[in-house]
Amino acid sequence: MKEISGGITSVPGISAAGIACGIKASGGMDLAVIFSDEPATAAAVFTTNKVKSAPVLISRERIRSGIAQAIVANSGNANACTGERGLGDARKMAELAAKSLKIDPEFVLVASTGKIGRYMPMSKLEAGIEKAISSLSPEGGHQAATAIMTTDTFSKEVAIEIDLQGKKAHIGGMVKGAGMIEPNMATMLCFIATDVNIDRIMLQEAIKNAVDRSFNMICVDGDMSTNDTVIILANGKSGNKKIEGQSDDYNIFLEALSYVTTTLAKMIAKDGEGATKFIELIIKDAANDQEARKAAHAISRSPLVKTALFGESPNWGRIMSSLGASGVEVNPNVVDIWFDDLKIVENGIGFGFVEEDAVNILKKAEYTITVNLGIGSSSATLWTCDLSYDYVKVNVT
Amino acid sequence: MKEISGGITSVPGISAAGIACGIKASGGMDLAVIFSDEPATAAAVFTTNKVKSAPVLISRERIRSGIAQAIVANSGNANACTGERGLGDARKMAELAAKSLKIDPEFVLVASTGKIGRYMPMSKLEAGIEKAISSLSPEGGHQAATAIMTTDTFSKEVAIEIDLQGKKAHIGGMVKGAGMIEPNMATMLCFIATDVNIDRIMLQEAIKNAVDRSFNMICVDGDMSTNDTVIILANGKSGNKKIEGQSDDYNIFLEALSYVTTTLAKMIAKDGEGATKFIELIIKDAANDQEARKAAHAISRSPLVKTALFGESPNWGRIMSSLGASGVEVNPNVVDIWFDDLKIVENGIGFGFVEEDAVNILKKAEYTITVNLGIGSSSATLWTCDLSYDYVKVNVT
């Protein structure tokens, strides 16, 4: 497996485009189209929020066929809490794209991100979708990745090449994140393409598994959006022997896909709204996997922990407190905590570290916090960020 | 029932004192003693955090006897995550007070609030406890309420008078709150005294019930501390017929006690760290009581909801989204939302309100948000505040 430059359009047979069509008042890019020149095997994971956006409802319905050929995505408007009219608008977006692309509307998936509760400006979409499709290009991945950004400060893409029994295959992806991140994928749109030849069931299993260890293990603010969508299209052009069950090839693909999703997930945490720190939080020796994940989420979503990290303050008591409040099985008398390699807490009590040493770690842009619960053998790793003045600033409107 | 001026020392037989003994580097008041001139029936509710402070562990043990006569409480140091030494220090605080007061050390309860993970400065406490006890006064309630403050911006006290079959009785209380508020009582110390004559079992039932509808229904930041403590002492001096079971007198007492705890709880939400708004959040027509409470907590702890409220932005989509992510049974198509009496959302869709009208409500210092889930008949009321720059500022160290 090696990382290659470029994003989703590094994958043979995939073209993309990103344009401005006037949804964003700023005039910024706000419409992306991703197109596979042949119908592709498709799988997806959607938000578990009970309030689901119209495009999530439509795409969730369509993904059941296991085939898709295009994705139309916009930023600037979530098309959520928009009722029947919103559903009609999402369907219409797909229809417009299908007509322009001369494909079956059922093969078009839709996704939206932005403000909730506003109707889509359909006349702008009508002109915009046509324009975006006329701009489709095998070099258009970066434009598309830029067009799905909301409060993101940089576009997020990655691509890799793998070898499946002598056949070169590719996976390329893009994501937008920033706020409402965690748990279980927050305002997050992620589109991935691959030329691996794989059946629908294994593709679904792989994407679910990869999302679980990546996007479900980041935390910006503990909110979860109505619009979260991860879609993967696999067009089979690599020519590898079709992956139809558990196999070495499946494992290679899963590892590669997890690398793609984890890389994108870390980019989201790094670009958390107002974030000044990127923190890898490792829970060790928890009673079981679920408890390890729960402890990681509880600590990383605590506003008191997050503000202390912003303040570069080694206030480890807040970590202990959020752990104790997490509902996870905890024996305070056996908990150890490290900042990078510096032991801060031993058996639940301050380890007598030199304050300046701890502060020097917390002053870094990236570091690791390890919490050892000392009661089992399960671990979890989560990527998170701090809570700064700028988080408040970004979110006051 | 009528509210009277004064706090805990409005209750006959109760004296209190608050002094500065040097725990706080600022030199501010940091030590309070509350004393009942006779052994009182005692009940308490403690944090459910699995990481419990030393004073919580000691007081929880001692309250089992159902009798107490004094409370020693300090701010500036939580005495949490301090191991065996911390337990010894908490016991020593009680012993010092008992010696000075010439009472059984088992009748002294202890409570601490402040930074976690630091040992208590026992030499300061030794001199301080003696000094505080020599300052005990039947007018000392306000001094004591001031001495337990941490990041609170005002002291929090209330007192009421009730009539029990012709006998006048009193309930007076104090609380400190500010950060780490929610759920299930956060860094919160609350001391209540009453001259009602009531047995231990009914006193415990009443305080648990009152806490449940008050302190467990406020949310500042969703954190829960290691030190939360609510203690009530009942000295029986009112001379009412002893409350020993469910009765009209019990109901009068419970309502009065709930008024006291609710009044104090609202003060905590109003004084939330950095808070600029005080919001009463009402959930209606939930599937059951537990779901109503869960929905209220989920909405009120969402950083995106809280920052929008700080920004006076009628971004109701964030309320819908946090509701959908709450895990509560929700049918988005029947949800209605009001700001005060202005309907904002009907059947999950914006109600076409005039934006300026909504903003005018959100500009107020206090208002109500009502969320009707439309699927059952259970309600819950919660008091919360917004998330401002100053919340971050207060918590960076």
Compact description:
The structure is a homodimer of 397-residue chains. The first copy, chain A, has 11 helices and 16 strands.
Characterization of the model:
Two copies of one chain form a homodimer. In chain A, strand 6 and strand 7 form a beta hairpin. With 397 residues, the first copy, chain A, is α+β, with helices and mostly antiparallel strands. In chain A, 32% of the residues lie in helices and 27% in strands. In chain A, strands 1, 2, 3, 4, 5, 6, 7, 8 and 10 form a nine-stranded mixed sheet that branches. Chain A has a seven-stranded mixed sheet with strand order 9-16-11-15-12-13-14. The first copy, chain A, is globular and about 70 Å long. The first copy, chain A, has two domains: 269 residues, L-amino peptidase D-ALA esterase/amidase (4-Layer Sandwich), CATH 3.60.70.12; 118 residues, Ubiquitin-like (UB roll) (Roll). The longest helix of chain A is centred in the middle third of the chain and has 23 residues. Chain A contains eleven helices and 16 strands. About 2% of the residues of chain A have low confidence. At the A-B interface, helix 8, helix 9, strand 14 and helix 11 of A face helix 8, helix 9, strand 14 and helix 11 of B.
